[in-house]
Write a structure and sequence with these properties.
alpha/beta; five-stranded mixed β-sheet; D-Maltodextrin-Binding Protein, domain 2; globular
Length: 470
């Protein structure tokens, strides 16, 4: 596969498109990285450490392509390790930064993680690196190439993914996207066809479908949602109601009547047995979706909203039914569609040795712009590639063209994500934004389960955010 992708890569021509400048979180501006006069010294060995959250299958892909990277730059030696989850990386980095001894040179990140690290001014701004015209020798191809990204390479990034790296209020780039996921609606296509149900595109249509299913199968729960937090945050975005702000001293805006109204509506759905969530169910609702016990007197759901990168977990054993995948329901699908953008980006940590920073940058550049790696990483992981040109690779086209709701479900999920890429949003990033995300998820489950009134749940969620922020 790698050899075929490399061959296809050499045949592609990149096209240029305009890129938007995005803004969001206001953080203290740190000095830009300055390229040393001597450039990158390829005669001296440089060791860098990459902290990520890859499983064994993706580490095999990474190791395969690191062979190419180290052929390009023989003096750069990459050590990498899977720390655990994205939050595990955040927690470990926070501990290391507090001790003044961060180990990673390049790492997986989410925007709120970058904001946290930037409290200590430890994140490298990428602009001077991206735009550097300093030549560095590529030993594998025996050519001198610019250290930075060409205009064509920068334009090749999917704009919504690229913009996330600039969402910090100063129009500087702090991260590059590696691979992305979103949320999609998985549904039992076989069941929908048998019952002559129409797949919902709006939340009003979803309520109607849930009502019909519940009337015929009263013991079942029509819809499962695998992230309480995403449910709340996405509806804020779709309704265009306040959630959070990057404005200092005024971060937590979600305690308002508009948001209470949609939470009350969702609470009514929960009480009617239309919906459950991961927190309420006690686990990913994909297990309810993939079971086959409903018509035999058991309990299951017929729709599940979950991560596009988790498509294989939505696949029932033995092909018991065909899975359909589509975009999540919208409040206003025509004028204001919104779907959350997730998945890892990469950031660089500052170092007194500029050669380590440049070496880490070259690895970042390689992982985000080397088309064969982007294609194979996507096909193995189910994440969406971040470059438009990947979709021109014949092997990747075939991957998407052969997508189906049985054994090719990961490709099917990626295909839906590609189709909705103009709909993506991301929330402002600031120190405390991850706490807000956690608290609104807890708010949803507390209201659903009846442990708190709506007013109390909202008040205490904001109070906890402010307390944790100090």
């Amino acid at each position: 596969m790698k050899k075929r992708l490399l061959t296809s890569f050499m045949m592609l021509l990149l096209g240029a498109t305009a890129l938007p400048l995005m803004s969001g979180c206001s953080t203290e501006i740190i000095p830009d990285f300055e390229m040393p006069e001597e450039g990158f010294d390829t005669s001296k060995d440089v060791n860098i450490f990459f902290a990520h959250a890859m499983g064994q299958n993706l580490q095999k892909v990474l190791n395969s392509y690191l062979e190419d990277f180290e052929k390009m730059y023989p003096n750069i030696h990459v050590e990498h390790n899977s720390i655990g989850s994205y939050d595990d990386i955040r927690d470990q980095m926070s501990t290391e930064l507090a001790a003044g001894a961060p180990q990673a040179d390049i790492l997986y990140c989410y925007p709120d993680h970058v904001a946290l690290y930037n409290q200590g001014q430890k994140v490298v701004t990428l602009d001077n690196l991206m735009n550097s015209q300093v030549k560095i020798h590529n030993a594998m191809d025996n050519v001198d190439e610019i250290c930075g990204l060409t205009a064509e390479q920068q334009a090749d990034f999917i704009p919504a993914y690229w913009g996330e790296g600039k969402a910090f209020g100063d129009n500087k780039m702090y991260s590059l996207p590696l691979s992305k996921s979103s949320e999609v609606l998985y549904y039992d296509k076989t069941f929908f066809e048998e019952e002559k149900l129409t797949v919902p595109t709006t939340w009003d249509e979803m309520e109607d479908v849930c009502r019909k299913i519940k009337a015929k199968y009263p013991d079942d729960i029509p819809l499962g949602y695998d992230s309480d937090s995403n449910l709340f945050i996405t509806l804020c975005e779709q309704y265009n109601t306040p959630y959070t702000s990057s404005e200092e001293g005024n971060h937590y805006l979600f305690n308002n009547e508009q948001n209470k109204a949609f939470v009350q509506k969702l609470k009514n759905w929960y009480d009617a047995g239309y919906i459950t969530t991961k927190n309420c169910y006690g686990g990913y609702t994909s297990s309810l979706f993939t079971t086959n016990t409903a018509k035999d007197g058991g309990k299951r759901c017929y729709m599940c909203i979950g991560s596009s990168a988790g498509a294989t977990y939505q696949l029932p054993a033995e092909g018991r039914f065909e899975v359909g995948i589509t975009s999540i329901p919208q409040v206003d699908v025509e004028n204001h569609p919104a779907v959350i953008s997730q998945g890892p980006s990469l950031c660089l940590m500052r170092n007194k040795d500029p050669q380590k920073v440049i070496a880490a940058w070259l690895l970042m550049k390689f992982l985000t712009t080397y088309l064969p790696f982007q294609a194979e990483f996507s096909m193995e992981s189910g994440y969406t590639p971040v470059l438009n040109s990947v979709f021109d690779i014949p092997e990747y086209k075939s991957f998407l063209d052969n997508a189906n709701g049985y054994g090719r479900i990961a490709a099917y999920s990626v295909k839906v994500c590609v189709e909705q890429r103009e709909w993506y949003y991301y929330s402002p990033a600031f120190v405390g934004s991850s706490q807000a995300r956690e608290e609104v998820g807890n708010l949803i489950s507390a209201v659903f389960l009846g442990t708190k009134t709506i007013d109390k749940a909202f008040e205490e969620a904001v109070a906890e955010c402010e307390y944790q922020a100090g």
